[in-house]
């Protein structure tokens, strides 16, 4: 099957399809018993990300169950700091822990030398999955956007206030800009290597875009994304790039227009009818069902799905969630969600 016949890529190219393609952020994960079994085999989460046979297997698992139109590489946005030599661990029940970079003087601990060697197993996973994909299914590569990756690198893990990273960015704009510039450079290289290995589209995850006010948002979210998109497009003008600025709120339209992305992923706070008027008129959109509706299932999920489809299925659109699949999600509810999307042409009346 040619690239143009893959529904996911057709929608990214601006086509309006009878039935919108779908995939789900975090579609390969802890809600699946088969994932949990592979995770036990791997040992640590980092080992899972860096074992191509296992990472490839969990990438493909949701496709076998639910028949999504795209697979997304199983990895993690913090593979980039790992590739730069920052110590990374995942503690059960606590999330990532990194050796924090708290000021410009500590940037010397990071090095792009050996970056691709440290992440060679990620690229091998992409190659394995690309060879194994079902007909008509596309492969998505991804990276975290510089701001969000910097949040974890400076904070040393997750946070509610992100006081360390915002303090660094506000207190030492030049020093923080050096970190962002390094992340921009290696993120471009990382995405290009995934594309060379077989990724047919890429997504930039800016999970903490929404914690910044407008001025810093433009400087630390929009501008780095714009430069990354331009650099990737210089080498691969036909590879679509999706941006996901979670929590961007009123800044999302400016983000879409200023960054050069091919499509924008919506979080759960974006009203679908507003997205149709103000975003989908410019580019394809992706989203944005509340993941907890999939946990709940039943009539609530069905109503949420139909609201989004009524608003957005008339334009270039990819169905997804407004964030990742929740761990508590019953797999059968994902199967019901897939059925609702597939039956939309008959149900829309």
- Could you say which overall geometry the principal axes of the C-alpha atoms support? globular
Question: Low-confidence parts lasting 5 or more residues at pLDDT below 50?
Answer: none
Strand content: 5-15%
CATH topology: TIM Barrel
Main sheet strand line-up? 1-4-5-6-7-8-9
Radius of gyration, taken over Cα atoms and rounded to an integer in Å = 19 Å
Secondary-structure blueprint:
Layout: H1 7-12, H2 33-42, H3 45-49, H4 52-66, E1 70-72, H5 79-83, E2 88-91, E3 95-98, H6 115-118, H7 120-132, E4 138-144, H8 146-155, H9 163-171, H10 173-197, E5 201-206, H11 214-235, E6 241-245, H12 252-259, E7 263-265, H13 272-278, E8 285-289, H14 291-296, H15 298-312, E9 317-321, H16 331-342, H17 344-347
Parallel strand pairs: 1-4, 4-5, 5-6, 6-7, 7-8, 8-9
Antiparallel strand pairs: 2-3
Give structural notes.
The protein is α/β, with parallel strands linked by helices and 349 residues long. It has one domain: TIM Barrel, CATH 3.20.20.210. The protein has helices at residues 7-12, 33-42, 45-49, 52-66, 79-83, 115-118, 120-132, 146-155, 163-171, 173-197, 214-235, 252-259, 272-278, 291-296, 298-312, 331-342, 344-347; strands at residues 70-72, 88-91, 95-98, 138-144, 201-206, 241-245, 263-265, 285-289, 317-321. The strands form two sheets. A seven-stranded parallel sheet has the order 1-4-5-6-7-8-9. The chain has a two-stranded antiparallel sheet with strand order 2-3. The longest helix has 25 residues, at 173-197. The model has no long low-confidence stretch (mean pLDDT 96).
């Amino acid at each position: 099957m040619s690239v143009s016949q893959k529904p996911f890529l057709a929608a990214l190219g601006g086509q309006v399809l009878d039935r919108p393609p779908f995939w789900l952020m975090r579609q390969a994960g802890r809600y699946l018993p088969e994932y949990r079994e592979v995770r036990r085999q791997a040992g640590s989460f980092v080992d899972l990300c860096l074992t191509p046979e296992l990472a490839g297997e969990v990438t493909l698992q949701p496709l076998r169950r639910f028949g999504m139109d795209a697979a997304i590489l199983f990895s993690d946005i913090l593979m980039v700091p790992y590739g730069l030599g920052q110590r990374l661990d995942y503690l059960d029940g606590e999330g990532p822990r990194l050796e924090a970079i708290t000021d410009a003087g500590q940037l010397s601990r990071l090095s792009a030398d050996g970056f691709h060697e440290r992440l060679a197993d990620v690229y091998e996973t992409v190659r394995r999955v690309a060879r194994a994909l079902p007909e008509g299914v596309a492969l998505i590569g991804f990276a975290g956007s510089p701001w969000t990756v910097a949040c974890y690198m400076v904070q040393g893990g997750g946070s509610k206030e992100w006081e360390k990273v915002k303090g660094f960015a506000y207190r030492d704009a030049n020093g923080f800009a050096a970190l962002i510039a390094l992340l921009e450079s290696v993120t471009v290289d990382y995405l290009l290597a995934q594309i060379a290995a077989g990724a047919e589209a890429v997504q930039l995850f800016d999970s903490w875009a929404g914690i910044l006010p407008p001025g810093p948002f433009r400087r630390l979210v929009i501008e780095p994304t714009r430069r990354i998109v331009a650099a990737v497009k210089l080498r691969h003008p036909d590879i679509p790039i999706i941006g996901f600025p979670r929590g961007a709120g009123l800044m999302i339209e400016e983000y879409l227009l200023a960054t050069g992305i091919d499509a924008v992923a919506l979080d759960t706070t974006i009203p679908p009818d507003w997205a149709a008027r103000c975003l989908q008129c410019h580019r394809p959109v992706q989203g944005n069902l509340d993941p907890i509706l999939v946990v709940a299932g039943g009539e609530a999920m069905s109503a949420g799905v139909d609201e989004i489809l009524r608003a957005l299925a008339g334009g270039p659109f990819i169905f997804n969630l407004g964030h990742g699949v929740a761990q508590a999600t019953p797999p059968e509810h994902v199967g019901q969600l897939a059925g609702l999307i597939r039956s939309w042409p008959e149900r829309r009346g």
